[in-house]
Amino acid sequence: xxxxxxxxxxxxxxxxxxxxxxxxxxxxxxxxxxxxxxxxxxxxxxxxxxxxxxxxxxxxxxxxxxxxxxxxxxxxxxxxxxxxxxxxxxxxxxxxxxxxxxxxxxxxxxxxxxxxxxxxxxxxxxxxxxxxxxxxxxxxxxxxxxxxxxxxxxxxxxxxxxxxxxxxxxxxxxxxxxxxxxxxxxxxxxxxxxxxxxxxxxxxxxxxxxxxxxxxxxxxxxxxxxxxxxxxxxxxxxxxxxxxxxxxxxxxxxxxxxxxxxxxxxxxxxxxxxxxxxxxxxxxxxxxxxxxxxxxxxxxxxxxxxxxxxxxxxxxxxxxxxxxxxxxxxxxxxxxxxxxxxxxxxxxxxxxxxxxxxxxxxxxxxxxxxxxxxxxxxxxxxxxxxxxxxxxxxxxxxxxxxxxxxxxxxxxxxxxxxxxxxxxxxxxxxxxxxxxxxxxxxxxxxxxxxxxxxxxxxxxxxxxxxxxxxxxxxxxxxxxxxxxxxxxxxxxxxxxxxxxxxxxxxxxxxxxxxxxxxxxxxxxxxxxxxxxxxxxxxxxxxxxxxxxxxxxxxxxxxxxxxxxxxxxxxxxxxxxxxxxxxxxxxxxxxxxxxxxxxxxxxxxxxxxxxxxxxxxxxxxxxxxxxxxxxxxxxxxxxxxxxxxxxxxxxxxxxxxxxxxxxxxxxxxxxxxxxxxxxxxxxxxxxxxxxxxxx
Length: 694
Fold this sequence. Notes:
Blueprint: E1 7-11, H1 14-17, E2 21-23, E3 26-28, E4 31-33, E5 38-43, E6 49-52, E7 58-61, E8 67-70, E9 73-77, E10 84-89, E11 93-98, E12 103-107, E13 113-117, E14 124-130, E15 136-141, E16 147-152, E17 163-165, E18 174-178, E19 181-185, E20 192-197, E21 203-208, E22 218-223, E23 227-234, E24 239-246, E25 252-259, E26 267-271, E27 274-277, E28 281-286, E29 294-299, E30 303-304, E31 315-321, E32 327-335, H2 338-349, H3 356-363, E33 372-375, E34 382-388, E35 396-405, E36 413-421, H4 432-436, H5 440-463, H6 465-469, H7 476-485, H8 496-504, H9 506-511, H10 516-527, E37 531-535, H11 584-591, E38 594-600, H12 603-620, E39 626-632, E40 678-680, E41 686-688
Helix pairs in contact: 2-3, 7-8, 10-12
């Protein structure tokens, strides 16, 4: 008995979670995570301007003396005229806006002053933000109420048309860059944030901010990804409201109140996690700072179960990590009212707003009396939880998951949400008496639900086995397991895409196992075509000259085996004295059965693939063959006895291809053959010699 005819809405990737509405939940990979609690930690020193360079290093600048501090060490003085208003750190340029409106530029490494950028006539700079490189975005006004965003490159030149900012009437604007978006707010009122696409200069929407920010000074800074952070301060209770907002979809990823140390004074500047105050400096760090509990919310978009012979809903399944003390609540709202469905759709699809979750809470008819609640009691391991939805008769459904995190508790995480439909059950296979009794049917449905979850999972695993075996659809974690089925050694350290390619070509590779072609196919996949295989058995046959024969001009002589007796190399009792005599059998044995594998890999690839290739070769090298493995590559790290000694470039592929010490290893690697020249051997026969240095 199976329920495989079921369908489902599945939320398990970042793009799928983004289709819903989040409040107090951050996207970390493909999981929804309740952010850690934050607090403001006092930093030593007087009040200074903060900045964060592209590497994440904090910088501090004393406003009047312009002393620059990095990692608690003085780096020198950024000389300029007048006190500093703000500082922006680029990759190689540090910008300082003076009180006179002049933009001073400094080399980020030497602190040497560069040519300053004078203010534009008729325009005043209100704020500035880095562009991710060495340029700036400047918020400017002409004094008549017009605002614009002007981009300055690393030299201070403006190479594109400024972007007009409309819809804001303010005496001052704050700007920051959230990924590819620019965000502009009025720091005095902070009612609405204007979002602008940095590439096109077109308006990308607005974000309605939390009402708690209004009529309070607001600081603005960029957050990782497409996020921005807002920090507003209340002098009455010495707390700051901290919000991190995704500017693409308007979701509030973090929302909490931070207590500000009294010695810091009123926050006046924000850069990353650095806070500049009126009396001191601070840093936003993880740690308990408040006593209130936090509630995080995720609301799905409208889900539809089409009408038909079977309609309705089955259950919602959640993969949750609920540490001890935390809790999760699952609630749903459903309706057949077309006007209500349209209003909710307009809210979700309309302009982003930080209060969207609250608006949906008030709009939709949530069935709180039927909410299902789970309490965390373990160590935070992922649990598979479920809530029955068999009582939902309407075709349109919204699901709301709330996560409660008390102070001092480890925040929960949600990795998957699956909503199944239509309303099918094992109850449908029982006699009508059990299904139609209004008193016993709901209770029996709940009794059968755990068995449905258990067997549904088994049935889906068996039904999906064909896809798990197919190289094109198998999960990455399965490809190594499937290769081991086919007789390959453990290959979990091989990149996933190459494991998949190896699995797709396994038939051809295994069918030619033990041959040169099979070895070449395997190495081509593993090294992405950077391997060359040479088998000496595939070369020309050996032949030997008689004692009185003359050599032709197109022949080359190998050294004879065994070699003539020579002082210092003789072994008493074994070395024959007198003139040596060639031994054809020994020479053929020396030459036959050698497979040379040349791998053109740089240092990084060699470090990754060398142990993998060593495990694969015993399975694919032809039987009774010896292997000569040659790693080459200009970046190889184990071949540098003398990088300054170069071979004759006229006889080589390129200067960088053959360098003694860079691409060779003395005593191991063959060097290119020198130019052929006549040589005289034994009574004057002529030949073209071809010695090889080993």
